Amino acid sequence: MDAETPASAAACDEADLRAQFGPVKPLAALKVLDHLDAYARRFIALSPFLVVASTDAAGNVDASPRGDAPGFVAVPDERTLVIPDRRGNNRIDTFVNLLENPGLGLIFLVPGINETLRVNGTAAMTRDPALLEPLAAEGKVPAAALVVRVREAFFHCGKAMIRAQLWDPARHVDRSTFPSLGRILAEQTASATVAEADAAIAEGYRTRLY
Fold first, then answer.
1. In the predicted model, what is the mean pLDDT of residues 83-87?
2. Alpha-carbon distance 101 to 162, whole Å?
3. Which of 91, 106, 160, 209 shows the greatest Cβ crowding within 10 Å of its Cβ?
């Protein structure tokens, strides 16, 4: 970048970006697989948490968390994942987006491991009992699931996690230092008192996880 080019100037195309950041590191380029190998499948079996990213037809992006006991995501074969949809708030943002754009991105996390697993592909909702029944938890079968067709899968280095020290208990925030979700929603929506919102959320956590 020359002295006349502002540091904040936006790149106009990929070639411009590459000129600014340099070439892809060899291992980063070679590590991308078109399937889930034994390492990826083992990581998914250990993972209790992932983030799902989807977009609508206009390109509006949504990222949504998914979590349950390790191994809650099924891997029927090396190019397929089945992610149960547990009970939630019924926003169904991911499912709505998939009606318009089947593209999907996933990041799997495993507590204590700094590296993450990224999976990209296409997805659709299923209500097939044959796929849903093996995903039952606490005696309850999910009403729906995401079936993901894997296009690429690769491990992401742990630099971000190391910088964040995410798994270090000494860095965990004292819960009392941040307002409860009930207080936040009560003040943001003015639709309930703090006590009512806190009670409703606590009841949902206690009785409507599955």
1. 96
2. 34
3. 106
Question: Domain locations in the chain?
Answer: 25-164, 173-207
CA 154 – CA 68 distance, rounded (Å): 22
Burial state string for 103-137 with b = 16 or more CB within 10 A and e = fewer than 16? ebbbbbbbeeebbbbebbbebebeeeeebbeebee
3-state secondary structure of 83: strand
Amino acid in the structure at residue 183: R
Residues 149-184 have pLDDT tens digits of 999 999 999 999 999 999 999 999 999 999 999 999
Sheet holding 103-109, edge to edge: 61-67, 49-55, 103-109, 116-126, 145-156, 80-84, 74-77
Q: Does domain 25-164 have CATH number 1.10.10.10?
A: no
